[in-house]
């Protein structure tokens, strides 16, 4: 077992803990995998450990900020019958931006979130934006 680099007494154990995450006064509990010390409870997270909670935390922040969450974005895009590529063309982003939004790897800027929300309520307006 690896010795803890923080307290130098305990040992690091690979496990998943309940971690409380706070954003703008709101809290959420996430299942955070990582290597945690059995003595001082400090932890080391690698890229995969951080990825495990990224979507959940990002969606939580979006809800508090009044932005669309990853699943809402996917739902609206499908309702509008747009591919991820077509949706990206509509908002002028990188071609892979919707796959990143929908996987919870990126948060849309507020105007993009607003546009999608409007199109969700008025899907017939889409043709006005896509006619050339
Ligand atoms: Zn320790």
Automatic annotation (TrEMBL):
Gene3D superfamilies linked to this entry: 3.10.20.860, lambda repressor-like DNA-binding domains
Keywords linked to the UniProt accession: DNA-binding, Transcription, Transcription regulation
Protein's UniProt keywords contain DNA-binding: yes
SMART domains referenced in this protein's UniProt entry, alphabetically: HTH_XRE
A Pfam family assignment: MqsA_antitoxin
SUPFAM superfamilies attached to this UniProt entry: lambda repressor-like DNA-binding domains
CDD domains: HTH_XRE, MqsA
InterPro entries given in the database record: Cro/C1-type_HTH, HTH-type_reg/antitoxin, Lambda_DNA-bd_dom_sf, MqsA, MqsA/HigA-2, Znf_MqsA-type
Record GO terms (molecular function): DNA binding
All residue ranges annotated as the HTH cro/C1-type domain in the record: 73-126
PANTHER family: ANTITOXIN MQSA (PTHR36511:SF4), MERR FAMILY BACTERIAL REGULATORY PROTEIN (PTHR36511)
Protein name according to UniProt: HTH cro/C1-type domain-containing protein
